[in-house]
Amino acid sequence: MITALPFEWFILLLRLVFVFLLYFFLLLVIRVTLRELAAVASAQRGGSSSIGHLIVQSPGMSSLRPGTRLPLEPVSVIGRHPQCTIRLDDSFVSTEHAQLTWDKGRWWISDLGSTNGTRVNGQPVTAPTGLRYGDVIELGDVRLVLSP
């Protein structure tokens, strides 16, 4: 059947297919872009920095100063690793020491298998523990206070 079509019709058909594929690709790019923009907008609305901070009470051997406010993200990992949300350069803090999570309107802390452990108000954290504003979190020699 294709041999029965003149060559010009075949080229026209190829051009139409190419234009269709080009517009289809552009449609997919626009859909992905809109989806990403919506995700960023909802994260800014729901995950604002007003949900919490950590205030340095005792910096231990880290370079932080007492009173420094460290903003929290909905999932914040605390440790020495450069990619941690909150980086503490204290020798008693593990690479990934603890994780703070905002869930159901409340902060939760979990120890990530740290060498020196994590304590909340002097009590060791052995399971995910709910926090209240004003609680003191101890990671090695560093003491941090959870505040709104």
Automatic annotation (TrEMBL):
Q: What is this protein called?
A: FHA domain-containing protein
Q: Does the keyword Transport apply?
A: no
Give one Pfam family, short name only: FHA
Reading the lineage from the top rank, the first entry is: Bacteria
UniProt keyword Membrane, yes or no:
yes
Q: For this UniProt entry, which segments traverse the membrane?
A: 12-34
Keywords attached to this entry:
Membrane, Transmembrane, Transmembrane helix
Which positions fall inside the FHA domain? Answer: 76-125
Q: What InterPro entries does the record tag this protein with? A: Cell_Proc_Reg/RNA_Proc, FHA_dom, SMAD_FHA_dom_sf
The residue stretches assigned to a coiled coil in this entry are: none
